Amino acid sequence: MKIGVICEGLTDFHAINHYLGAELHNAGIQATFISVQPNADNTSGGGWGNVLGWLDGNPLKERDPLFEQGLFANSRRLSGLDSILIHLDTDILPDQSFVKNLKDRGYVFGSPQSSAAKCTELTALIHYISLPNDASPRMKNRHIPAPIAESSEAWCVAVDTLFNGSAEALAGQALANAFGTALARYKNISPQTTYKNINKSLKTREDYCKNTKGNLVGLATCAQFVSIGNTLKNWKFI
Question: 100 to each of 67, 108, 121, 129, 220, how far by Cα in Å?
Fold first, then answer.
């Protein structure tokens, strides 16, 4: 199974690639994740604008080569995909520039409160932006929304074997502290009491996700991770 990923940034891709890849491997499914957006050698910052910008800049008809044997953007690596996974983090919901973008599109967004409700809203939004009303069942089947509760750092926290609690319920400073603590434990150094910023080093994130992908027990408590995993496990060509 070859899955293209449209995500906010490469730190998100590393979490998707290693954790969902391990989940599928454990289910007997061999999957390869390909970073379509951002490109694997893109070291610029991430964000929701990158996802929506890619979808706007690559209308549905122009995405056909992604699923065929021809070339997409002069790259064979980005061709012959079975499906594309489209990611957004729920932490973007209070972002006023994001809200304005949706208003400019004429899209009415609700006021979800729970993690599950936020993911449901983002799923509907991803469908709305990525697929026109007349999209064929085949193309709808190949576009898989993958909203992550709060951010992909929550998945990184969940695989910390010493973490107790619900990783998907963390937000803001609590999530930054939990992620910083998980990373410190991984590096075998003493955690700080608080962390001002989340470490976004691509090499650090890739190493962390790669070497903690065997700790999937904690991710079983992350409802959205389980939901995306089940969608991929049950995906079939139509």
Answer: 32, 11, 16, 15, 35
